[in-house]
Design a protein that fits this description.
By secondary structure, this protein is mainly alpha-helical. The chain folds into 2 domains: 7-21 and 100-286, Hypothetical protein af1432, CATH 1.10.3210.10; 22-88, no CATH class. The protein has helices spanning 7-15, 25-31, 39-47, 50-61, 74-82, 84-98, 110-127, 143-148, 152-159, 161-169, 179-187, 191-201, 206-214, 225-244, 251-256, 261-272, 275-286. 42% of the residues are buried.
């Protein structure tokens, strides 16, 4: 497949303000909140965006979270059901997703993209406490790392819809290279580079930047490598769950991250047992429907 773009062109379009929207205001405000911000302060920010507020209440009422009696206010959605950390992650994911138009890219599958993002985030957050203390880097929340790990795909779909569609289609024949390899061949860059350029332009936290840039590199051992490896492991499980309905196991990776079988099995059962509820949550992340 002949390259239709070049790395310099892709990078230029990502870094030029007129080509890529700025980080949405609601996301800027959430990222700037103090770690000890009150629920009411976060609720006030959310209420300024009625569409996102409605989607958030929909998530809080989804069966996945199992809250009896229903939720009617943003404050209750945060305080009673979701919690500040999870709400911050979900809101930034929705706000960033809304900033990009991926509809022109025929090969982009929003349901698969958001399913993988949401399940990766839920798995990563569930397994994070089981990492050895030395691997946690004093981070309090890795949900956002999982949710945004593959955001470079949305960036490329927004800027280069035709080229990315061709990459998704792949060459004829039985031997179809992996998606990342096809993207790199068609465009001269991959989604990790694109995501990293945007994350740095938007001044996202460094651990998120490194997860975006290196989650497809099994041998990565730079800064925050256990977080990068955790998200990559969870992404592979999410992809298998979407494709075949089972996350599978990776004993070597689990051992390297210090996970015991009990911890992994517990999180797996939770996720696999609530697939339909997760799909409802995914629909709300993708479109609010």
């Amino acid at each position: 497949m002949q390259s239709l773009t070049c790395p310099a062109e892709v990078r230029r379009k990502i870094l030029l303000q007129k080509e890529i929207p700025p980080l949405p205001l609601i996301a800027q405000r959430i990222l700037s909140l103090a770690p000890d911000a009150e629920v009411s302060e976060l609720a006030r920010i959310i209420e300024q965006s009625p569409e996102i507020a409605a989607r958030l209440i929909g998530m809080a009422n989804a069966a996945y979270f199992g809250w009896p009696g229903g939720v009617r206010t943003i404050y209750d959605a945060i305080y009673k059901v979701l919690g500040i950390k999870l709400v911050k992650s979900l809101l930034i994911g929705m706000a960033m997703g809304d900033a990009f138009d991926v509809k022109k890219c025929r090969g982009f599958r929003p349901e698969r993209y958001w399913f993988t993002a949401v399940v990766t985030a839920q798995l990563a957050q569930g397994l994070f406490p089981f990492l050895p203390q030395s691997m946690q880097y004093e981070l309090e929340n890795v949900h956002m790392d999982g949710l945004l790990h593959n955001f470079g795909i949305a960036v490329l779909a927004h800027l280069f819809p035709l080229e990315l569609s061709r990459a998704f289609a792949g060459p004829p024949g039985d031997e179809v290279p992996p998606t990342t390899e096809r993207i790199r061949t068609a465009m001269g860059v991959d989604q990790m580079q694109a995501g990293g350029w945007l994350a740095r332009k938007w001044h996202l936290p460094r651990n998120i930047v490194l997860v975006m840039e290196h989650h497809k590199e099994p041998g990565y051992r730079g800064d925050f490598w256990p977080i990068v490896m955790l998200v990559a492991y969870c992404e592979r499980g999410a992809q298998r769950l979407f494709s075949v309905g089972d996350m599978g196991r990776e004993p070597e990776t689990e051992a390297l991250l210090g996970f015991g079988e009990t911890a992994v099995d517990k999180i797996r059962r939770t996720i696999e047992g609530q697939l339909e509820e997760l799909k409802t949550m995914v629909a709300l992340m993708a479109s609010g429907e």
